[in-house]
Design brief:
This protein is of the alpha/beta class. Among the domains are: about 190 residues, FAD/NAD(P)-binding domain; about 70 residues, no CATH class. Helices cover about 35% and strands about 30% of the residues. The strands form three sheets. Strands 1, 2, 8, 9, 10, 11, 17 and 18 form an eight-stranded mixed β-sheet that branches. A seven-stranded mixed β-sheet has the order 6-5-13-14-15-12-16. The N and C termini lie far apart (about 45 Å). The mean pLDDT is about 95. This is FAD-dependent oxidoreductase.
């Protein structure tokens, strides 16, 4: 049996950032367990992000594969360019860098170690079980992503209550003449979701994602996500694709994010409690933000030798205070956005182009006001029929 002060299950951005925070700020013995043979084997993210990640978490420029000064929203016929600076990360290299940062501060980063469940004694989480050993710790952190390996077993997160989606992306060499990220809302390309192109310095990324519920309503045939992605890659004349170098794919389970995030001896970060933004699906930034919030509270709790639910719930309250209402409101908007008809998709795109500089800042920071959302939303009389479906997000 191995003993640490803190054990983190999962080596994605949230888990690695939590370990990085503890390693840099404390002398506690911290272990991070990742199921894959290497951190770089996690290829589920597009790597698209913004300055809050690159500057806010001091990300080294060596893992940034590109940046651009704007974002383009497209509908079936409409197109608007928005002045929102952005970055594209080399995601596997980013994870390796986070791991190296944590390890340099004394964190024991162990790959090829799958956590199979929590170790619970007298109602308190006191460690984890892996396929090969039992590891005890004063504090356990679930950062296992959408599988919620620990939160689901502890009854803290109901994956079945969330909406499921899927995304797939090709990393391509060739030519793409653009200095902006592109997000396309068009059921012909991505039924019930959106498609994207992220420019890099020598490669670009092309992807498609959708929410399963809305894919079923808007897909006109039974083509797979791979079929839709390859079709767009082949027929859009804005690029010349010479070679596909990598494929990134992953599933998402998303809810309002207002979930239990702490119990005795335990906190959960990232998508193990669905921290993903429900409107546009960004996961890196909210996952790392949740890790920093949790680390702030965890350090105080460890210093006080009190890892009770009562003490650790300060993290949960902070998340709900900063994100809860915004995420819940944006879940409602997302529910409507991915069900828009083609005319509404175009109107949504045109409305985004009318935002002021301050409005674009709120959009990029997911801090949209009710007035902003009403300006973006192309209402139809038929939308009243959708009210019972979206009302569940207010509960």
């Amino acid at each position: 049996m191995t003993v640490y002060d803190v054990v983190v299950a999962g080596g994605g951005p949230a888990g690695l950032q939590f370990a990085r925070e503890l390693g840099a700020r404390t002398d506690y013995r911290v272990c991070l367990l990742e199921a894959n043979p290497s951190l770089a084997d996690n290829d589920k993210s597009t790597g698209g992000t913004f300055e809050q990640v690159v500057d806010g978490f001091d990300v080294d420029e060596s893992v940034v594969m590109g940046s651009s000064p704007g974002v383009v929203f497209e509908g079936p016929t409409a197109r608007e360019r928005l002045a929102i600076p952005n970055y594209v990360l080399d995601f596997p290299a980013f994870l390796e860098w986070l791991g190296e940062e944590a390890a340099s501060d004394g964190v024991d980063v162990r790959t090829g170690t799958r956590v199979t469940g929590p170790l619970v004694e007298d109602g308190q989480v006191v460690g984890v079980e892996t396929r090969g050993e039992t590891i005890r710790a004063n504090l356990v952190v679930d950062a296992t992503g959408e599988t919620g390996a620990l939160t689901t077993e502890l009854g803290m997160w109901d994956r079945e209550a969330g909406q499921r989606g899927i995304g797939k992306e090709f990393e391509v060499s060739g030519t793409f003449d653009s200095d902006a990220m592109v997000f396309r809302f068009d059921h012909e390309v991505a039924p019930g979701g959106y498609a994207w192109v992220f420019p890099g310095d020598d490669r670009f990324k092309v992807g498609v994602c959708w929410v399963n519920d809305f894919y079923e309503r808007h897909a006109t045939d039974d083509r797979s996500i791979d079929d839709y992605l390859r079709s767009w890659l082949e027929r859009d004349d804005r690029w010349q694709a010479d070679e596909i170098h990598a494929t990134h794919a992953g599933a998402v389970v998303s809810d309002n994010s207002i979930n239990q995030r702490a119990t005795d001896g335990f906190v959960a970060v990232g998508d193990s409690v669905s921290s993903i933004n429900p409107l546009f699906g960004e996961g890196i930034r909210p996952g790392m933000e949740s890790a920093r919030m949790a680390a702030d509270v965890a350090i105080d709790a460890l210093d006080a030798d009190d890892v009770s639910r009562e003490r650790l719930a300060a993290y949960e309250r902070r998340w709900d205070g900063e994100k809860g209402w915004d995420w819940r409101l944006q879940r409602i908007v997302g529910e409507l956005l991915y069900d828009f008809d083609a005319g509404q998709q175009d109107e949504f795109v045109r409305a985004s182009g009318e935002f002021s500089r301050a409005g674009l800042d709120r959009l990029q920071q997911y801090d949209l006001s009710i007035r902003d959302l009403l300006r973006l939303y192309p209402a139809r009389a038929s939308d009243f029929l959708k009210l019972p479906r979206v009302a569940r997000h207010l509960v």
